[in-house]
Protein 1
Amino acid sequence: MVRGLLEGKNGLILGVANANSIAWAVARAAHDAGADLAITYQNDRFARRVSKLVDGEDMAARLYACDVTVPGDVRSLFEEVERDLGKLDFILHAWAFAPKEALAADYVETSWDDFATAQRVSAHSLVEVAREGRHLMREKASIVALSYLGSERVVPGYNVMGVAKASLEASVRYLASDLGALGIRVNAVSPGPINTLSARGVSGFGEMLKQHRDVAPLERNVEAEEVAGATTFLFSDMSSGITGEVLYVDAGYHIMGV
Ligand code: NAD
């Protein structure tokens, strides 16, 4: 990591569940690059684990619970962050969820409730974060969301999550357009498959990892630290001319036809 790249910047990392979370790798990279951080976990179930991670890293980050399905949680998160940390220079959106049944059955079976849940947690939550957080963001601030190739290609088993990621990526573009006048950039990073809590909910995930290794030009899977590196670049002023973009960190997998 480039030391000092995020020196003097404040960042909010949304969605650490455990040590394998991509959001945790991003938090560590941003901390190493000099940022002061606020970190969220979903609810009490994750509180102790995330607090131990932060203590172990000695990063003095502030911790907040935030569940986007609880009305008012996102708004009160930003009120608390403003009180404790002040203005923000970057936000990572790493929230995603779809009910297991919707990932197990064929996409054609998707119920409205499962469709709506996936959209709410995995896509509309970015809109809510941008709306509630924009007044707190400094000029040149950067929002980064985590997407996946299932947004534009059929990945068996990814189903309703793929449709939510399509919506997330479209939201990145619309939000980039809305917030550009405030100097706020909005981008997505699209990682290849990485073994995390959420990923294990996708049926056939082990096969996905293998297929990726077999097809990707770099002939391997990617590490969360590589996603964190690209995200840190998008947080930093080095990417000041980039907005509305989806940046693949997938060892080149998405360029392959056969
Ligand atoms: P993860 O399970 O560590 O992170 C997902 C986070 O979403 C968790 O912290 C979880 O608590 C949070 N979340 C779920 N429902 C929520 C709610 N109602 N309110 C607030 N938070 C909620 O898994 P991850 O793989 O690190 O996922 C992070 C992001 O990366 C997700 O957007 C995921 O789709 C994306 N992604 C993951 C992979 C992969 O292979 N792991 C690949 C591409 C993109």
Protein 2
Amino acid sequence: MNKLFSGIKPTGKIHLGNYLGALKNWVELQEKYQCLYFIADLHALTIKINPDELRDHSLQLAIDLLSLGIDPKKAVLFRQSDVIGHTELAWIFNCLTPVSELERMTQFKDESKKQPDNVNAGLLTYPVLQAADILLYRAESVPVGEDQLQHLELSRIIARKFNNRYQRYFPEPKPVISPARRVMSLKYPERKMSKSHGEASYIALRDDEKTVSQKIKKAVTDDQGVLNLLELYSYFGDLKKYERMMNEHKSGKLMNASLKEDLAKAILEFLKPTQEKIVYYENNKSKVEKILRDGAKEAQKIADQTMAQVKQLVGLK
Ligand code: TYM
């Protein structure tokens, strides 16, 4: 593992699923590897999103990432649409990707059901753009949650197709999966935590104390639900206490109310310093804009090199 790349869509609030499944890893990995992280604003266009909202969400997302510990001195942070090359490489990859591979993507099927009046071509070719994002930087490792594994598998297929057709040029990028590969919903314990299942199903990074406490109080506590809460506790709380509670749960002695109280406390302890940093960056937006501009410049240098070589290889130059 040496060059790492990953991204997140600016389609709303960051939640604990994003954090535990991917962003926590991003922060840890920047200490050891060359990392590029980006805000996938072109991908956000596959849903109907108001232009001002998209702009605001992108900046808020940058603020959230910096507040969580992404350090522009260690990792390159940029906005996808600021770098020329993503869509150009995606077009070249489009011409190598069988439509049948795209039609079998679970996310395409799910998203098409969610927005039946807007099954646009971008929704279908979304994973091709994702492959281009990664391979534009010839990244080898991609820290993501479990829901992105199928897209990554397609990125490897696309890299292989390119290498076979032209010349061995792209690495086949591998996922880096965190222990919290699939964080579950508070409201629907069998589903993953996601923005699309309503406010009550997730804890957002920017939720205030009252909201966090209420959401956890209302969390479903069937058997799976309790296990999910215990798992969440294991990430934010005290491990010894977690083991004790797990044993109590197994012997039917665990009080759900006290688990919820402890969990809310542990999550709030994590959120407090992050939210303080969010307030700081919200008051210093020009700094954030500059970080994104500088990041885009860095990313563009790599992108330009790749595109010059790719164009040569495919005969566009
Ligand atoms: P996005 O924006 O949906 O999610 C960002 C990251 O959060 C992870 N994640 C979760 N992990 C565990 N449990 C959950 N409940 C949970 N919910 C979300 C996701 O797996 C992801 O790692 N297609 C990508 C964005 C993208 C990208 C890329 C990623 C575009 N190009 C290139 C990597 C490389 C997406 O929609 O992530």
